[in-house]
Amino acid sequence: MNPVEPVVQGFRDLVANVPDVVQPLVIALAGAVPFVEGELATTVGVLGGLNPIVAGIAAAGGNFLCVFLIVTLSSRVRTATLARRARREAVRVPVNPTERGSDAPEEPPTKVKPDSKGKERFRRYLDRYGVPGASLLGPLAMPTQFTAALLVAGGVSKPRVLLWQGIAIILWTAISTVSAWLALIVVYNVG
């Protein structure tokens, strides 16, 4: 007996205690969590004994639903921020530095915080491959939820972000589903 078989069987027994209707919902909720996403959620579902197709659809659906909500919220925040900035710029009267009095306050210099390694890698993907490449390769650098928010914040249209994030979620979840299924069937002979 393979040493992994008892572990997988124990996990399947645990999952069997959850009603069949609820199991895909649990996988969908797991797919909505950043860093878990569709890839890990579908793997958990397949290891737990769910049909790989059901696990993949549930995980991808949960992940996409979360990305959809984040893109919608990010788009609204960006629109509101740009509108507020435009109103503020319209009200602001430019001051000529030579006309300032000695008592006029100087504007303090702003400190720029360096980007994280993940953001730098994401920015390289975006610069090099555009929105499709950033969406498809983004999960290698950071969760799809973060990638989607950055794309919207950068000015990419909501439908374009949703299209490419959807394609990326389907692709990565399908790869994970097939990999988990093959690992159980071929490598560990668990079915």
UniProtKB/TrEMBL annotation:
Ranges of biased composition (kind: Basic and acidic residues): 100-118
Top-level taxon: Bacteria
Region (Disordered): 93-118
Keywords: Membrane, Transmembrane, Transmembrane helix
Residue stretches spanning the membrane: 53-75, 129-156, 162-188
Annotated protein name in UniProt: Small multidrug efflux protein
Organism (species): Promicromonospora umidemergens
Lineage: Bacteria, Bacillati, Actinomycetota, Actinomycetes, Micrococcales
